[in-house]
Amino acid sequence: MTDARIETQVVRTRADLRAALAAAPRPLGLVPTMGWLHDGHRSLMRRARADSATTIATIFVNPRQFNEAADYQRYPRNEARDLAICTEEGIGLVFAPSAEEVYPPGFDTVVSVGAVARPLEGAARPGHFDGVATVVAILFELIGAERAYFGQKDAQQVMVIRQMARDLAIPTEVIACPTVREPDGLALSSRNVHLAPDERAAAPVLRRALLAARAGWEAGERSGDALRATMRDVLATESLAIPAYVSVADGRTLAELDRIENGGSALLSLAVRLGSTRLIDNEPIG
Ligand code: PAF
User: Whose CA is nearest to atom 3 of ligand 1?
Assistant: First the structure.
C-alpha cells in the first residue's frame, strides 16, 4: 500500500518521541523492528494502519538480544531503505534511537520472563529473551501504544512479550500476525539475506518438515516423538540443513509433549543451521 501523502517523521531521542506523541491521534499502533524491513514487516504495518489513527515503527538493532557479538555485528542494516519502506507504508512516525538513548548510562535492569522463555530459542540462545523482553518493555513504556504487532514466525517471542506485558501491567495489546512466506514456503526473515544460493535453495526444507508433521497430525498421529521424527526425517533430506532442535510443544506453555491430546493445541517448531545462518519456523496445530 503506497501513500505518498504521509510524511514520515523520524525521531531519535526520548524527548522528541514524547513531543511527537503528545499530539498524535489515538489509537496508536506500534510495529517494533530491528530494521532491514521486508514484506513481513510491511504486513504488520498494514495491519497496524488498518487498526490505528497513528502508526509508529521503531528501528533499533538491539544489542542485548544477540548472544553472539558476531551475530550482532553482521545483522543487516540500511536505514535509508527502511525509512523509504515506512513512508511507502504510510507510517507516520519512526523512532530510530541510538543504543545510548535506549540504555542510558547507568541502565541496570533486566526484564527476565519465566517458564515460557526457557525452552527452544531460550535454551539455544542464552540471554536472548531477556534482551527482547527488556527492550520491548522500554518501547512499550515510552510509546504507550494501544496495540503492538509482531510476526507469528517468532511464536515464542510473541508468547514471551505477552507474558511480560501482562506481568508488568503494561496495557499495550500484543497482536500476532500471520507469517509471510516466499512462494516456495521459506518464511521471510532479515537473516535470509545471508543465505548462499545453495543454502537458499535448501531453506524451504524447514517448511516441508513442518507441513509433513502437520500432515501426520491430520492423519491421526498424536505421538510427540513420532511427529518430531517426521520433521527430522524431512530435514535429513537436505545435507546442508543442520537441525538445532525440532519440537512438538504445548501451545500455551511450550513444554514438550509426549502426546497431543485430542482438542489440545500444540506448536510444531524447529531451528536449523544452513551454513552460518540460523533459521526458525513454526506451525501451530489444534
Ligand atoms: O522481532 C524483532 O525484530 C525483535 O526481536 C524486536 C521485537 C523488534 C525486539 O528487538
Answer: 33
Closest residue (by CA) to atom 1 of ligand 1?
A: 33
What is the residue whose three cell numbers read 514471551? 160
Going by CA atoms, what residue is nearest to atom 5 of ligand 1? 132
Q: Is residue 266 within 8 Å of 251, Cβ to Cβ?
A: yes
Count of helix runs (H) and strand runs (E) in the chain: 11, 9
Is-catalytic flag, 41?
yes
Give the chain's domains with CATH numbers. Answer: 9-177 (3.40.50.620), 190-285 (3.30.1300.10)
pTM here? Answer: 0.97
User: Are 186 and 167 within 8 A, CB to CB?
Assistant: no
Show Cβ contacts of residue 110 under 8 Å, excluding neighbours closer than 6 positions. 130, 134
pLDDT (tens digit, 9 = 90+) per residue, 102-159?
Answer: 999 999 999 999 999 999 999 999 999 999 999 999 999 999 999 999 999 999 999 9
Catalytic option among 38, 41, 128, 194: 41
Q: CB of 34 closer than 6 A to ligand 1? A: yes
Give the Å distance between the CA of 82 and the centre of ligand 1.
15
> Residue ranges of the alpha helices (H) in the chain?
14-22, 39-51, 69-74, 79-88, 99-102, 121-124, 128-143, 155-167, 197-202, 205-218, 224-235
